[in-house]
C-alpha cells in the first residue's frame, strides 16, 4: 500500500500536485487517514489492557524497542529521513502505554 492508495480519488498524489491547494488537500486527507489508523491502533491498546493480567505487564520495554525498531526499518525502506520513525514512535508508544495504563486501571475499578 502506498500513500496514494489511502487518498480519496479526488485528491492528487504528491508528485502530481501543481498548486498549494492540491498539496494541502492531500495533507489534510492523509491526516484524516492517520487519525483513523491511530483510532484502530488504540483499539488494540484497549484489548491489551483487557487481556494483560497485571498492571506491571503494561510497560514492556523489550516490546517497545521492537516496535520502534520495526518502524525504523519500515521508514528506511520507504525512504523517510533518518531518525524520523524513532522520534515519532517513541512518542506514540509512550502515549499508548499511558492510555493502556488508564484503561487497565478503569477495567479493574
Automatic annotation (TrEMBL):
Enzyme Commission code: 5.4.99.5
Principal EC category: isomerase
Record-listed substrate binding positions: 24, 41, 52, 100
Transmembrane segments: none
Any one Gene Ontology BP term: chorismate metabolic process
GO-annotated molecular function: carbon-oxygen lyase activity; chorismate mutase activity
Keywords: Isomerase
Pfam families: CM_2
Record-annotated Chorismate mutase domain positions: 14-104
SMART domains assigned to the protein according to its UniProt record, in alphabetical order: CM_2
Protein name stated in the entry: chorismate mutase
Amino acid at each position: 500500500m502506498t500513500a496514494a492508495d489511502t487518498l480519496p480519488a479526488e485528491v492528487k498524489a504528491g508528485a502530481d500536485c501543481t498548486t498549494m491547494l492540491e498539496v494541502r488537500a492531500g495533507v489534510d486527507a492523509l491526516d484524516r487517514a492517520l487519525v483513523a489508523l491511530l483510532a484502530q491502533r488504540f483499539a488494540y491498546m484497549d484489548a491489551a489492557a483487557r487481556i494483560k493480567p497485571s498492571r506491571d505487564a503494561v510497560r514492556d520495554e523489550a516490546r517497545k524497542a521492537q516496535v520502534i525498531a520495526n518502524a525504523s526499518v519500515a521508514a528506511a525502506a520507504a525512504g523517510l529521513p533518518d531518525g524520523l520513525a524513532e522520534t515519532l514512535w517513541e512518542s506514540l508508544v509512550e502515549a499508548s502505554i499511558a492510555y493502556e495504563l488508564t484503561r487497565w486501571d478503569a477495567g479493574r475499578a
